[in-house]
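Structure request: GST N-terminal domain-containing protein, Galerina marginata.
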Amino acid sequence: MTIIFYDIPSALPRNAWSPNTFKARYALNFKGIPYKTEWVEYPDIEPVAKKLGIPPTTKKLDGSPHYTLPAIYDPSTKTYVSDSRLIVEYLEKEYPDTPSLFPHNTVGLQLAFSHAFGPCLDALWEFILPVQCLKLNPRSAEYFRRTREADFGKTLEEVIPKGDQAVIQWAKYKDGMGKVDAWYTQNGGKGPFLMGETLSWADVVVVSWTIWVRIIFGEDSQQWKDLSSWHGGRWNTLVENLEKYETVL
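Returned structure:
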């Protein structure tokens, strides 16, 4: 039976763009599990989730449920699962005969890596979120702008670092990825992945946030040229090694 995969569309040719949903998409493709995508615009996520019974992933500041994508529906178990981490854990449990993203019982270490990786991206947000808004379809773009400007307390255009501050902040992003590079170096140069020649959830997490830069800024952008060249081209090599799992179905 075919899993239904809920993702957020865009105005881009391939539609898919979200790093969070790409994590689940990579997992489905890597495991070879049949699925089809249903696209849900930003303002429709909460009403669709409530209608279908998709569980919330977090809580808002006021304590009310917060609904996000990705989510899946597995007709073989009649189960809805949301949040990329919970989705991959579900797939590992329900489809044990597929390749594992937690090899050698490393689930705890993989999740710890993912948690440690998050702060390494802090300097990127103000550069990329305003540009991301421009890649969305009109209804999602309006929703994204309205909600994010409320969070920032300023317009998205005002959020983007400029001048010397932009140079300093972009260098901080490079430094953050440098920390991740140091972790990868511990594999002894035995392969492109954190575990050497073995692909794992950690690599999926890193690549999902890496291709976000390529997708949002564009392959010919200076931002992607920078990132893809940093640390001996490690991030471009990692992306290339997972390219066959980028398929949008």
